Amino acid sequence: MSFRRSVTLEEMVWPAVESTLENGNRTAIVAVGSIEQHGPHLPLNMDTLDGDELSRRIASELGDAIAAPTIRPGCSGHHMEFPGTITVPPETLMDVIRSYCRSLDEHGFEHIALVPTHGGNFGPVKTVAPEIAREIDAAVIPLADLDEHMQLLNEGLSRAGIEYDQDVIHAGAAETAIMLAINEDLVRMDALDPGPEGEFSPARLLSEGFKSITENGVLGDPTEATAEAGEIVIETVVEKYAEHIKTERRAV
Fold it and tell me: Which of 73, 181, 216, 249 is the 20 to 30 Å CA partner of 82?
């Protein structure tokens, strides 16, 4: 029996990981996802599935990297009015990220890229990354610019021919498109329900919670989404993030 080569750490046996490291594949991609509401049509693990997909594709794009298991849950207190959401304090999330990085560093990974896929995780990732970098030998690369991330999602929609732009993205056109591309069976197409549109203050969303703005947990219009657009959105993020990682690796 032959086994396919995987870039996903959790699918590998330990001798394969050892061999991968010996062959110079010493970059690890760590997505930081969540378990939280994404409206009446998307699964609670939307950000985690997105993280799985991004980390796997980024690792493949780089050609010398592995995708570590996506961290979950995340900092989702602003979604707790919606049943099913699970949240942890920022300090807890940062401790888990620190433990992940220490483990990977001990095994010989030289670059660790942190890829948050949930808005509430960008701040903790940005905060803890330089602390971890001072504690371990591996270089820590935080891809934690929330504005850039949302710009990339909008750019992907535009590249797909969908002229739909949102300042704050959650369960609308972009994320629904991503989920359709990853696993359309997990999208309840019969429950697509638009939410408020326009400019929203991220600070207000974090402090007052999503329920203060959206009754169904959605921002924007998910009916604009297509699987084809989702594929292009994912590719747009992967291309940019792989480019960032290559640049950071050359600088070390």
Answer: 181
Q: Are strands 111-116 and 65-67 parallel, antiparallel or unpaired?
A: unpaired
Q: In this predicted model, what pLDDT tens digit does every residue of 106-134 receive, in sequence order?
A: 999 999 999 999 999 999 999 999 999 99
Angle value at C-alpha 115, between 130 and 37, nearest 5 degrees: 120
* Cα angle 34, 49, 183; round to 5: 140
pTM: 0.95
Which stretches within the chain are classed as H helix?
A: 14-22, 46-62, 90-107, 119-135, 146-159, 173-183, 202-208, 227-251
Helix (H, G, I), strand (E, B) or coil at 140: strand
Which residues fall within 8 angstroms of residue 59, CB to CB, at 6 or more apart?
7, 8, 27, 29, 65, 66, 67
The two tokens of residue 79 are 């979604």
Give the pLDDT confidence of 46-94 residue by residue, as tens digits. 999 999 999 999 999 999 999 999 999 999 999 999 999 999 999 999 9
